[in-house]
């Protein structure tokens, strides 16, 4: 079936296929401590009750476009699949990168996949972690971009600046392209400027923020990739041709994809192609690249404060305060960002919001796990979180989703005691299987081969007490795993 798409010249839907391509990579370190490598910002509901990934995927579905292609790293695959399912998007293609190679190889992989069926299909390429507040204005801009893409252009969206922003790159708008209203040639791309240069660019009037979104036919993108980055083209082509299916995911061939250069689409194609075009837009776009940007997008009280979670304020002004854990109280301050999670607190002046990434770098250098991972760790079967840790013991809460099970495994350095507090568990212990119900427990001695399953229709919650000389997560020997983990 041919999907409907937007056609600018006719002003309605026409028989052109548009495929949203969602790039879900990066760690979002400037939104630490909420966003971390193990669970970055696109998986969090930062502005609405939906996550940024869900909001991004729903833009295409709400416009009647094709099912999206999501390109991501393998560790996030089950998180993405579950969030898309929750959003009602059942037919997405989730493509797994064996290693990160930046945006040009990721987009090329999606283009090769689409070109297998329809090389004239239009790709709408976007990051998974941006916000857009005006869907109607976006629709109008997309109409113009698709018209230009069908004419052989590689189109980006340039956002009309609202202030001298140093966190974005800029695009200098050239002349309007004949026959395609509201689409302009690109005079040049400008790197992220310092404050003085940003003021000059905004005052000039010809410069737009670079949104990082692109629209182009699959064949156009691939031909320009082959012309300017032949190593990207050839290695990604092989990785797609030699891909294999893993459950509901498509795994790119590791050897071929790893051989592709690590390069962004801006450096590889956008800044070199003669086909670049830009559509000026004003649809409330933000890459939410800092806590200050999130403050700007959030609803505020009469004193300019934006809050989320269990927060109490007293004589505070123009602050962003978020708590995902314990109660947070803020009094008598202005222009601060305060973010509280279960295992970290971050306080910054709003003017220094971009500098949070420097603190993440310091924590990483110091070997602090809080830099990259949360206290709650998500797995394909559910999640676990640490409650207490001491000398030779730790206590965790484990939640297993209905009809899911952990790997069959054993440990060399620890024993475990499981207490079920909600639901019913089937526990494999060596050659026996035990039904463990609420308020019942079971002991797993060191070296026992064991597995935990949830046969029920509600989440299974249990408390795990570990004891032993070494309690690291790498003390797991997987014997069998339905999720194909090593």
From TrEMBL:
Annotated ranges, domain Mannose-6-phosphate isomerase type II C-terminal: 367-481
KW RNA-binding (keyword) present: no
Annotated catalysed reactions: alpha-D-mannose 1-phosphate + GTP + H(+) = GDP-alpha-D-mannose + diphosphate
Domain of life, per lineage: Bacteria
MannoseP isomerase/GMP-like beta-helix domain span: 316-363
Class of this enzyme: transferase
Annotated protein name in UniProt: mannose-1-phosphate guanylyltransferase
Gene source species: Kozakia baliensis
């Amino acid at each position: 079936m041919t999907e409907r798409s937007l056609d600018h010249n006719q002003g309605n839907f026409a028989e052109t296929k548009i495929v949203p391509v969602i790039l879900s990579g990066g760690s979002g370190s400037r939104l630490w401590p909420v966003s971390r490598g193990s669970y970055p910002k696109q998986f969090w509901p930062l502005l609405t009750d939906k996550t940024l990934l869900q909001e991004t995927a729903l833009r295409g579905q709400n416009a009647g476009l094709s099912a999206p292609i999501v390109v991501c790293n393998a560790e996030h695959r089950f998180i993405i699949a579950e969030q898309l399912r929750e959003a009602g998007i059942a037919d997405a293609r989730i493509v797994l990168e064996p290693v990160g190679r930046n945006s040009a190889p990721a987009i090329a992989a999606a283009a090769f996949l689409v070109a297998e069926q329809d090389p004239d299909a239009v790709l709408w390429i976007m990051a998974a972690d941006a916000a857009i507040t005006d869907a109607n204005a976006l629709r109008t801009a997309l109409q113009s971009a698709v018209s230009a893409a069908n004419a052989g252009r590689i189109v980006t969206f340039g956002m009309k600046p609202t202030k001298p922003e140093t966190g974005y790159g800029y695009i200098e708008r050239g002349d309007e392209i004949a026959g395609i209203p509201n689409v302009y040639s690109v005079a040049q791309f400008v790197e992220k400027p310092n404050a003085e240069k940003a003021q000059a660019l905004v005052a000039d009037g010809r410069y737009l923020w670079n949104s990082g979104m692109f629209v182009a036919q699959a064949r156009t993108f691939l031909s320009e990739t082959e012309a300017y980055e032949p190593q990207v083209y050839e290695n990604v082509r092989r990785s797609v041709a030699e891909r294999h299916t893993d459950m509901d995911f498509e795994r790119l061939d590791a050897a071929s994809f790893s051989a592709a250069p690590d390069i962004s689409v801006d450096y590889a194609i956008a800044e070199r192609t003669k086909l670049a075009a830009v559509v000026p837009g004003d649809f409330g776009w933000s890459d939410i690249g800092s806590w200050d940007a999130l403050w700007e997008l959030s609803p505020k009280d009469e004193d300019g404060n934006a809050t989320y979670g269990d927060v109490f304020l007293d004589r505070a002004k123009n602050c962003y305060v978020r708590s995902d854990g314990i109660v947070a109280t803020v009094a008598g301050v202005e222009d601060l960002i305060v973010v509280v999670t279960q295992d970290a607190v971050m306080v910054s002046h709003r003017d220094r919001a971009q500098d949070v990434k420097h603190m993440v770098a310091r924590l990483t250098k110091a070997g602090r796990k809080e830099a990259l991972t949360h206290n709650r760790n998500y797995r394909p079967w559910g999640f676990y979180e640490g409650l207490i840790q001491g000398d030779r013991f730790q206590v965790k809460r484990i939640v297993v989703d209905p009809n899911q099970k952990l790997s069959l495994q054993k440990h060399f350095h620890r024993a475990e005691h499981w207490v079920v507090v909600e639901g019913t568990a089937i526990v494999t212990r060596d050659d026996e299987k035990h039904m463990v119900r609420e308020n019942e427990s079971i002991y797993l001695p060191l070296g026992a081969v064991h597995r935990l399953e949830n046969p029920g229709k509600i989440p299974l919650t249990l408390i795990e007490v570990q004891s032993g000389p070494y309690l690291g997560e790498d003390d797991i020997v997987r014997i069998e795993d339905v999720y194909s983990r090593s």
